[in-house]
Amino acid sequence: MTCSLEQADWDPEAYSRFRDLRLRPAVDLLAAVRSVGVGDMVDLGCGNGAMGRRLKGRFADKHLLGVDSSSAMLEKAHETHSYDALRNVDISQYEIQGAGLIYSNAALHWLQDHETLLPRLRGMLGAGGTLAVQMPHQNNAPSHRMWRTLVEELFPGRVDFDVGPKVAMPAQYYDLLSPLGALAIWETEYYHVLDEDMSAHPVRRFTESTYARPILAALDSEEQIALIARYEQIMDKAYPRSADGSVLFPFKRLFFTLTV
User: Fold this and answer.
1) 170 burial type by CB count under 10 A (0-12 exposed, 13-18 middle, 19+ buried)
2) What's the CA gap between 51 and 88, in Å, rounded?
């Protein structure tokens, strides 16, 4: 049986293990927003609501909508009391008209056909509105690439990577989006210090709740153990531990804002 990378639900507790490290690029994206229209704000792919309070705090007069396909994550978002409304829908199918801000942090890379998706999102903005997006651009790094390489080596055909997370090159997004409004696009490579973990390589802990989540979900427990053992051997070489057991983990992310 082939498993799609979109099938398994999210684990809010596992995702929150590195909350502060995951939050920094989200805050950096919000800081880059320079224009917001008169319409509602949408936190598209809001997850556990980590940015709800910051969005509402910066634009207190705006109605804030949280949209996500994970009911488990939305339960956590509800607990923040930051959103005026929450919607449990497939974010690729979400529709709104005249939005003042569509803010999407670490979500759109899970969706397909950006050539259609992003112009459609731009079309949902009202005058002066902004589409603000951040996506991990890490798939070619060992931390992500080796999950795919190893599962194909050990258990070929079990995971359908055609619908997995993908991010194009910055020049491709520039060509697609620059005719649609005022575009700013950039990449940032964060150097995360992952604390010692006596039970696992820290990079495995960081990736298993995101990129590797659906890969592991496609395997039974013995297969997971075999895959993880091989993955950790490679991580020990690709991201060696320091004397105190911590790991310096470079992680690249792609950002853009598009204002109409």
Assistant:
1) middle
2) 17
d(CA 119, CA 133): 13
Question: What Rg value do the Cα atoms of the chain yield, rounded?
Answer: 19
Neighbours of 215 (CB within 10 A): 26
Identify which of 136, 129, 72 has the alpha carbon closest to the alpha carbon of residue 105: 136
CB of 171 within 8 A of CB of 178? Answer: no
pLDDT digits (tens, 9 = 90+) for 148-202: 999 999 999 988 877 668 899 999 999 999 999 999 999 999 999 999 999 999 9
Q: Angle at Cα 187 formed by Cα 182 and Cα 192, nearest 5°?
A: 145
Give the orientation angle of helix 221-238 with respect to helix 142-154, to 10 degrees.
140
Q: Strand, helix or coil at 66?
A: strand
Distance in angstroms (rounded) separating the CA atoms of residues 64 and 96: 12
**Three-state secondary structure call for residue 162:** helix
Task: Name which of 225, 67, 253 is nearest 144 in CA terms.
Answer: 253
Comparing CA positions, the residue from 116, 54, 115, 46 lying closest to residue 76 is 46
What global pTM score does this model have?
Answer: 0.89
CATH architecture of 3-259: 3-Layer(aba) Sandwich (3.40)
Domain boundaries, the chain: 3-259
100 near 62, Cβ under 8 Å? yes
